[in-house]
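Section 3.1 - Work completed
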Amino acid sequence: MNDFIFQSPTRFVFGRGYADKIGEEVAALGAKRVLLVYGGGSVVRTGLLARVTSSLEAAGVAHVELLGVRPNPEVGLVRRGIELARAEKVDLVLAVGGGSVIDCSKAIAFGTPYQGDVWDFFSKKASIGACLPVACVLTIPAAGSEASASCVISNDELNLKRGVNGDVFRPRVAILDPEVTFTLPQYQTAAGAVDIICHICERFFSAAGPVPVTDNIACGIIRAVIDAANTVAEKPDDYDARATIMWSGTLAHNDLCGCGRASAPEKRAGGWESHGLEHEISAHRPEVTHGAGLAVILPAWMRYVWRADRERFLAFAQGVFDVEPVDETDEATEDAITYAIDELQRFFVGLGMPRTLADLGLAPEEVDGWLETLRQNKGDRFGELRPLTMDDARAIYLSAF
């Protein structure tokens, strides 16, 4: 087990009806006037926005609203949010939504005190310092942004999608009410389950070797998500299954599943190859749901690199799918590993996720554009378990069609 630093300072308020508690929670943080950030349709249609604003009013917390956050949030809206936050002198940013809304809120929070352009942080021209506090009411379990030190924003003008990390913008409080997810469309639920599993896999497939405590936590959460997602596909209002997915999404990305697996205490475990590859797709095509892209890219990456660390992939096969080679031959090992990868993809497809990039309406002719921005973001070589060149990335992309 490698040295590590684990920090999860977010206060989690988890349970039925707890969306109505957000007012008292942000008031307890000292907030007097908040910027309320959301996407639009669903939180209005379901009545959640009205519940949140009523809770704020009852707690004596004033608010101004910024709506219109899209999937794969764009820096233009972040800039508008920063202008509004400054003009209205807000003292907290409150996200009501999924990972896109929370990431947009995080960027507004650390962009507001900064005198330059917020994209400076994503282009590594500036380091994050001061930051408004962030709180959230989670509506889509997927990104884990409610507890993570990560923020990912797109820039349509540059065809770039980039992330920054920093504990300073982890949400101070996160309301997790599984009942608000009952009305999620199956496609969003499925894409969320894929993203959750991928967050764990990015850490599991690092070069640290076995870390029994962390590895068992990781595999256990994946198994729980698989069971719960299959249940929800049949029974959308199954509270326990929804609760399992929601809490799993938090644990998948608050770094618990990477403890002892990172190359240095201050680093995040894993090479994040699948996320790096998928981010280029949804940067160029913002209409592609991140989890749907990962449903194709993760298995393609696994098939391409598993020979670099057979033991790690065997641990995954055994820990998640109870699969072991029938003997010690190379052929039996390959059969066990490829079965586990195929089984993971069968699970994704069974939830309604795409099997190929063509299923997402993409074409091989787009690969060159993805590689161009991938090189800008990652350099000529990136990853950890098996570092990837641009030729490797091209091969993985093409294998996914």
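Second construct:
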Amino acid sequence: MNLIDAIAAQADYLTGVRRDLHAHPELAFEETRTADLVAGLLTEWGIPVHRGLGGTGVVGIVKNGDSPRAVGLRADMDALPIHETNQFPHASRHAGKMHACGHDGHTTMLLGAAQYLARQRDFDGTVYLIFQPAEEQGGGARVMMRDGLFEKFPMQAVFGLHNMPGIPAGTVALSPGAVLASNNEFRLTIHGKGGHAAMPHLAIDPIPVAGQIMQAYQTILTRNKKPLETAVVSITMLRAGDVPNVIPDSCEMQGSVRAYSAETLELIERRMGEIAEQSAAMFGARVDFEFRRNYPSTINHDKETAFAREVLLDLLPAEQVIAQTPIMAAEDFAFMLEEVPGCYAFIGNGDGDHRLPGHGAGPCMVHNPSYDFNDAILPLGASFLVRLAERWLARPGA
């Protein structure tokens, strides 16, 4: 492993920063303490700071030389509304809030890169350090963009990094094309006619309608979409009735839809609406159907992904630079990749053996109350981000 020596020497310091962030998690658009800490450190290192994009977003500007070229490095800062079960000293101090996805580690890796870039400035151009709020809930990337991120800080490429439990520490995965799915939600309310449970013939029961729709939705995946396209329709919430002997007036159903291609998503949304409306009509009921598109699919650009792989091969043995199998989770970095070429890579977080005594009993997976970021990978992530920026700005015609 060919890490940057100066960053490797800061491993203990970076671990302290990461654990401080872990102990003080903040939810989407509430990252005030985190943003203050980030802005304070950047200022201490002589990096000009712009604040306010996306509310709590922070952008650091590291410039050297006269080149107009610029590259962006992005990290997310927010935590999840999860109650942490870990008992080690840096466990969350705020009940119901937890860094259960590793954004504390992502922020720390970018801070490590920022410190090195500010001290060495071995590049010609500008590096924009994007500390983004609200990845988990609220689409902070999109909000920063609406507030003028790419107009105020024009860049030719943008790169991001996420930890991945289950991939060995010291390994980085990346692939061109779709690596994460779009995130979409639906809600439908079936309006029937309430009545006595003993006299169902006088009512229009919305619950059998819901059952019909639930079954029919799975046929979209097996009989409507192309077999080689991947998608998920998950019904996760069902609400109806208050007492056992009353047929309710209505039934509400909610869930999630994931897909990689826009074409497949269009098909699913259309068929879901048709099935809901026609199933309800068949039973004499009516339905209100809503479909909300949250995050698009995260699609890595070919050239930028190939470039990032070249950078990794100078840092790691070839067997530790692997292909990323697409997964159905979603990420709002997708919005940035729709506007600016770039790549989103995945750094191995290991299998959980790094966790200290006092961790929860569950697996070390993201969005899990016993998760913890692997501090051993902080120098690798920071070194990767530095080399991405330096080599991108050194490319002819970049």
